[in-house]
């Protein structure tokens, strides 16, 4: 936690003009790791190509939200739309800003967005079993568990908690 943290952060939908903020955020988030590996995962293209990052922020079925402290992007989360449903994915908070309740801010931003478009489908989340803090944040923000799923087998298996949003009310 940051001692002089100002809780007056802002959230907004990211657009293609935010690509450099997003790229820099991803680099800070995974400091010490290979940016090419990150880019291959995040945008599936060349990490040095601005259009690759723009494309990631403007995909038709994904809405990205940024959490800003002053002018710095310190958090990110998405809504992925498929069929008549939405999935809350990928809350990421820069490590030095964690434990300040900022995941709640990103949950609220996504719920406000869905309310603004009069979304009527179901809202889901899948969270890694070991990510207890994200599971707790989802529960605080109206999600309830309804099952689990496992990807892979043996030592390579990954278990996810499956959650459903009870209501879009804030």
Topology overview:
Elements: E1 10-13, H1 19-29, H2 35-42, H3 50-57, E2 62-69, E3 72-82, E4 85-93, H4 102-116, E5 123-128, H5 132-140, E6 143-151, E7 158-165
Parallel strand pairs: 4-5
Antiparallel strand pairs: 1-2, 2-3, 3-4, 5-7, 6-7
Helix pairs in contact: 1-3
Keywords:
Aminopeptidase; globular; alpha+beta; seven-stranded mixed beta sheet; 170 residues
Strand content: 25-35%
Shape: globular
Largest sheet: 7 strands, mixed
The arrangement of helices and strands along the chain is: EHHHEEEHEHEE
Give average pLDDT, whole number: 87
Domains counted in the coordinates: how many?
1
Given helix and strand content, the structural type is alpha+beta
Give the strand order, joined by hyphens, for the main sheet. Answer: 1-2-3-4-5-7-6
Molecular structure report:
The protein is α+β, with helices and mostly antiparallel strands and 170 residues long. It has a single domain (10-165), classed as Gcn5-related N-acetyltransferase (GNAT) (Aminopeptidase, 3-Layer(aba) Sandwich). The protein is built from five helices and seven strands; from the N terminus they run E-H-H-H-E-E-E-H-E-H-E-E. The chain has helices at 19-29, 35-42, 50-57, 102-116, 132-140; strands at residues 10-13, 62-69, 72-82, 85-93, 123-128, 143-151, 158-165. The chain has a seven-stranded mixed β-sheet with strand order 1-2-3-4-5-7-6, sandwiched between helices. The mean pLDDT is 87.
Concise overview:
The protein has 170 residues and is an alpha+beta fold. The chain is 30% helix and 32% strand. The chain has a seven-stranded mixed sheet with strand order 1-2-3-4-5-7-6, sandwiched between helices.
């Amino acid at each position: 936690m940051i001692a002089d943290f100002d809780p007056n952060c802002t959230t907004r939908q990211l657009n293609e003009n935010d690509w450099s903020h997003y790229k820099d955020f991803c680099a800070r988030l995974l400091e010490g790791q290979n940016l090419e590996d990150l880019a291959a995962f995040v945008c599936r293209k060349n990490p040095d190509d601005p259009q690759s990052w723009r494309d990631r922020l403007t995909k038709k079925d994904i809405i990205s939200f940024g959490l800003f402290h002053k002018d710095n992007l310190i958090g990110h989360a998405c809504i992925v739309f498929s069929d008549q449903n939405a999935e809350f994915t990928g809350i990421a908070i820069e490590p030095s800003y964690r434990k300040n309740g900022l995941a709640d801010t990103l949950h609220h931003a996504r719920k406000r967005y869905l309310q603004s478009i009069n979304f009527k489908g179901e809202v889901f989340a899948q969270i890694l079993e070991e990510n207890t803090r994200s599971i707790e944040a989802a529960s605080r923000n109206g999600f309830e568990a309804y099952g689990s799923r496992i990807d892979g087998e043996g030592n390579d298996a990954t278990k996810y908690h499956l959650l459903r949003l009870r209501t879009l009310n804030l």
